[in-house]
UniProtKB/TrEMBL annotation:
PROSITE patterns: FAS1. May be a cell surface adhesion protein. This is Fasciclin-like arabinogalactan family protein. Gene3D superfamilies: FAS1 domain (2.30.180.10). One of its GO terms (biological process) is plant-type secondary cell wall biogenesis. Keywords: Cell membrane, Glycoprotein, GPI-anchor, Lipoprotein, Membrane, Proteoglycan, Signal. Residues 32-51, 202-242 are annotated as: Disordered. It is found in: Cell membrane. Residues 1-25 form the signal peptide. GO terms for cellular component: plasma membrane; side of membrane. Residues 32-46 have a biased composition (Low complexity). It is a lipid-anchor; GPI-anchor. Residues 206-228 have a biased composition (Polar residues).
Length: 266
């Protein structure tokens, strides 16, 4: 059997090129995997003019006061922003101009800017309610207004053709549907919704005096002023302490004189 002879040059090239080829194979980058397609979230659709709360109220023609207060308190702008992102929608109870005119003179002027904002937010429910869903709504129903005690609420009761809303201060009827298409529902009410936090009876806690003050008033003395008896006790203690100190000084002086007299004897 004939032996195969390898030319020395081929052997040399094999020895030189093999390590180079192996090193290149190890360092060559792997082919990049195709990038996964990015999930594009559907952006919330912009609110159309027909869904604009301002447009709805202007079209109703008898909500000028409520519309003005929405603008003055910036609550209207908040409603627009919430409608862009809300997944539950909003419900607005819009009092008519006659409802505001029925308030006692100066009622709105007595409120601070913050209180006016709270009053307007009390007319907004943070959820979309169609008229039909009022029949199955659980009370109390939260509003956008808040107080020191938490979220301000209303109670809504509904029959087949009518819905009533109660705040604890006033009761009124939801008289008309101005707009109802998710995410916004706007209903007309014949009275301004007065919240207990702003218009309810004042809490006894905020106006009642403390027990100490009450007792002091009954006794005709000030709760902060010390009684004459305690003053006498204090004066007595002071005199006693002063007398004891003087006696100590006297005995100390006598002892020193006696010691000096004994030294003179020696």
């Amino acid at each position: 059997m004939a032996s195969i002879q390898i030319h020395p040059c081929l052997l040399f090239l094999a020895l030189v090129l093999c390590p180079v080829l192996l090193a290149h194979a190890k360092t060559a980058p792997a082919p990049e995997a195709p990038a996964p397609a990015e999930a594009t979230a559907d952006a919330p659709s912009p609110v159309s003019e027909s869904q604009s709360l301002e447009h709805i109220l202007e079209k109703g023609m008898q909500y000028k006061t409520f519309l003005r207060m929405l603008k003055d308190t910036q609550v209207g702008a908040q409603v627009v922003n919430q409608m862009q992102d809300s997944i539950t929608g909003l419900t607005v109870m819009a009092p008519t101009d006659n409802a505001f005119n029925s308030l006692k003179p100066g009622t709105l002027n007595k409120l601070t800017q913050q209180q006016q904002s709270e009053l307007i937010m009390y007319h907004i429910l943070p959820k979309y309610y169609s008229f039909v869903t009022f029949q199955t709504t659980s009370n109390p129903v939260p509003t956008q207004a808040t107080s020191e005690e938490g979220t301000c609420t209303v109670n809504i009761t509904s029959g087949s053709n009518q819905a009533n809303i109660s705040t604890g201060v006033i009761d009124t009827t939801i008289s008309n549907t101005l707009y109802a298409d998710f995410p916004l529902a706007v209903y007309s009410v014949d009275k301004v919704l007065l919240s207990p936090d702003l218009f309810g009876p004042k809490s006894a806690k905020s106006h009642s005096a403390t027990p100490t003050e009450s007792n002091a008033k009954k006794n005709g003395t000030s709760a902060l002023a010390p009684s004459s008896e305690s003053e006498d006790d204090t004066n007595a203690d002071t005199k006693s302490t002063s007398g004891a100190g003087l006696k100590g000084v006297k005995w100390g002086s006598l002892g020193g004189l006696l010691f000096m007299f004994i030294l003179n004897l020696f």
